[in-house]
Design brief:
Elements: H1 2-20, E1 22-28, H2 33-46, E2 50-56, H3 59-67, E3 73-76, H4 82-87, E4 92-107, E5 115-116, H5 118-126, H6 135-140, E6 152-156, H7 161-173, H8 175-178, E7 193-195, H9 197-207, E8 211-216, H10 217-223, E9 226-227, E10 229-231, E11 237-238, H11 242-250, E12 275-283, H12 289-304, H13 320-331
Parallel strand pairs: 1-2, 1-3, 5-10, 6-7, 6-8
Antiparallel strand pairs: 3-12, 4-8, 4-9, 4-12, 10-11
Amino acid sequence: MRKTLLFVAASLVLTVSVAQAQKLTGAGATFPYPIYSKWFSEYSAAHPGVEINYQSIGSGGGIKQVTSGVVDFGASDIVMSDQQISESKVKLIALPTVMGAVVPIFNVTGVNDLKFSPDVLADIFLGKISTWNDARIAKDNPGAKLPNESINVIHRAEGSGTTFIFTDYLTKVSKDWANGPGKGSALSWPKGIGGKGNEGVAGLVRQLPGSIGYVELIYAMQNKISFGELKNASGNWVKASIGGVTEAAASMKQMPSDYRVSITNAPGAQAYPISSFTWLLVPVKSADPAKGKVIKDFLNWMLISGQSEVSNLYYAPLPKAVVDKEHASVNSLQ
């Protein structure tokens, strides 16, 4: 009798484990990939049978795949447009996960520290400033030994949320940029070489003397690449930091109900000007109830436990008001 009961109990445990075993697929932004990789690994380890596979292919690819129903969830640093939302085969909600900073990285011979005024940064990427010893760069950097070295611009090769954040900022601070390339995830760049992903841009800047690019902060830190200070909306020189991103977010008085918001060039004495939220794109109603349950549980875990880990990877945690608002949104998912 005892052996029979043990067998039944073991069978029930096995049945529960199999019932809970789920394999989820996601794709999208490279901007949050380091923290997503950590989160998905930790969550899977704590939930045997759950496997979350994420492809870091860029925000444009993530939006395309999730709106066509190819993956279970997407990830993007791009605020989805009304058209993208209406044309999606799956009704989605974009939920902020962390905040981060995009930084201008550079590889200039003999120079480790640089400051960039907003108009100077825009004109470098426009190709109007073509050498590192240009008078306008020198004006922002008195005393720096700037070489007579050509500037090689590195940008993203694919549709990118990091590009969207960077050009959203440039559009706000430069009329020439706003009237030229403008804001978007994929542009007709005035000049430069394309790199795939934040990883590709960081790699090219490291390899190519005289180069400048833009990446999420952790990619600069991990690759030990120099990145510049920026003059913010208050006229202060600031370097990217968790505190600077947090102050930029504090300028947002109320999060919209659809969570679509920009915090680039935000006011604040120490606000870092190229700051942004990044979002997971999840179905409002999952076609597979079992997968939907896992997504819902993961999101609540991310909001409670995951936020405590983001600072170690140079991201800023979500403001408490946003976390509270998101819990309600997550609990309404079907």
